[in-house]
Amino acid sequence: MEGTIDTAATGHVTSDSIRALNERIQKESAFVDLLEAEMAKVIVGQKDMLHKLLVALLADGHILLEGVPGLAKTMAIKALAETIAVDFSRIQFTPDLLPADLIGTLIYSQKNEEFTVKKGPIFSNFVLADEINRAPAKVQSALLEAMQERQVTIGQHTFPLPEPFLVLATMNPIEQEGTYPLPEAQTDRFMLKVVLDYPRKEEEKLILRANVRPEGMAKPQQVVSPTQILAARKLVREVYMDEKIEQYIVDIVHATRTPEEYKLHDMGSLISFGGSPRASIFMALGAKAFAFSNRRGYVIPEDVRAVAPDVLRHRIGLTYEAEAENISVKEIIDRVLNAVEVP
Fold first, then answer.
1. In sequence order, what are the residues at sequence separation of 6 or more whose Cβ sits closer than 8 angstroms to the Cβ of residue 144?
2. What is the pTM of this model?
3. CA of 272: how far to CAs of 27, 195, 316, in Å?
4. What SS3 state is found at 217?
5. For residues 50 and 229, what is the distance between their CA atoms, to the nearest angstrom?
């Protein structure tokens, strides 16, 4: 970070201004360690999920979790809500769910002879959409519209959703019976898709102990206010990103669309569609949030590589040929990250 950096995107930036920003962010991001420490009281292992949950929160994005039941998905977002002291609601998606069950509806009052608005569970700061793929398309689109527009229309009234607002949707990869697949255009609204795995033996022993002890499970304490989170979101966007890092992000996303340009000639027949422009935006925001959560005021290539798999996982379509050869999206992403030159 020596000398003077001049970029088209950020204008004239000096090493002194980056140093000052870095010191400011080191001070302002201290609450991240407190958040992680409080959540670690309740959640054993799953450090990657917790870190990505914070990245999505700081970057003002939503997160899609895929994992078998019992991996603390509900517990994680509930614990996060308790550490920030915000409203939390859990919606169990079922095939008979209606959009009104999610966003609310108009109820006629005979006493007042008028319709009154009854708000639904979407009007919370943190919303857990459990098994999102079990609900029909109308309900999914109602949720995704609320996520995108940050507002809900009931009758002729439009209501803004509370801030901060975060949707954590879960999908069960095992049971496909009675599920409605999420269209690519809808999954594209999620900033990250995180795939969870089972805990290790040592971690599972700690989970077992925590759940059977006489005093019960530990309770996380509030360590940060919603106002601090909103202020941190603004500061995350100020994290410095060099033009070379921007080009690196664009190259990664373009390599999923035109792999031939990056000497990945055999991958053209494996990818049916690549990352959308949202992939570039979310990768940049995610890298900034990742740098912020690591107490840094500037983005390095490792920040981009840390968030790239979760940003791209649900934005790359595989062809029948790839599926026939048992090639996974993870393999495609690994090859792209290895092929694109790191600045």
1. 186, 189
2. 0.85
3. 45, 22, 8
4. coil
5. 16
- pLDDT tens, 293-338? 999 999 999 999 999 999 999 999 888 998 888 888 999 999 999 9
Neighbours of 15 (CB within 10 A): 12
Interval 108-134: pLDDT, tens: 878 777 888 888 899 999 999 888 888
Distance separating alpha carbons of residues 262 and 278, to the nearest angstrom? 21
CATH number at residue 63: 3.40.50.300
Looking up tokens 């393999």 gives: 331
**Structural contact between residues 128 and 138, judged by C-beta atoms closer than 8 angstroms:** no
Q: Which residue has the tokens 């204008």?
A: 11
Q: Are 248 and 267 in contact (CB under 8 A)?
A: no
Count of structural domains within the chain: 1
Q: How many CB atoms lie within 10 A of CB 1?
A: 14
- Tell me how far apart the alpha carbons of residues 224 and 187 are, in angstroms, rounded to a whole number: 30
Alpha-carbon distance 288 to 304, whole Å?
8
For 273, phi and psi rounded to 5 degrees?
-155, 150
Range of the domain at 211: 4-339
Which residue carries 């857990």 as its tokens? Answer: 128
**Dist. CA 182–CA 140, nearest whole Å:** 8
Pair 74, 29: CB distance under 8 Å: no
**Could you identify the residue written with the tokens 């959308």?**
276
Measured CA to CA in angstroms, residue 8 lies from 122, 239, 241, 243, 246 at distances of 40, 16, 12, 8, 11
Contact 117, 154 (CB under 8 A): yes
